[in-house]
Amino acid sequence: MKTNINFSIYTIAILTFMALIPNNASAQQNGITRTDLQRHDLSIAGHETVQSKIDFDAHTAFGMHAHPGEEVIYVLEGTLEYQIEDEKPVTLKAGEVLFIPAGKFHSAKNSSNAKASELATYIVEKGKPILVLKK
């Protein structure tokens, strides 16, 4: 009986811990949080759209990465700097937008003392990872 109680407590602890891990834990970095808002199939076969809110604490950056499709960014709050491959960096403030072509490696950084957030809409191939880090 004691073994079953210990097993049950252990199981509850593990399940509770797993419930606290966000579904998109792979997209989390220190000071950066991605919250998936919606995901829908498109009328284009094999494609879907994913919409996420990405929050950047002050002085945080997300390194070079790409997506298996296009990304449309709308800055919700603060100021963010984007670097798309070898292009000149672009700094956007709240209310401004950016289009990132499929497969282009890019990074984002918040160099300010305040929080910044973006709304990212991905138009991507289904079944592929939403994010690929540059090696």
TrEMBL record:
Signal among keywords: yes
Keywords from the UniProt entry: Signal
Keyword Kinase carried by entry: no
Regions that span the bilayer: none
Gene3D superfamilies: Jelly Rolls
Superkingdom: Bacteria
Signal sequence, renumbered to the chain: 1-27
Domain spans labelled Cupin type-2: 56-117
Pfam family, one: Cupin_2
PANTHER family associated with the record: CUPIN DOMAIN PROTEIN (AFU_ORTHOLOGUE AFUA_3G13620)
Name assigned to this protein: Cupin domain-containing protein
Upper lineage: Bacteria, Pseudomonadati, Bacteroidota, Flavobacteriia, Flavobacteriales
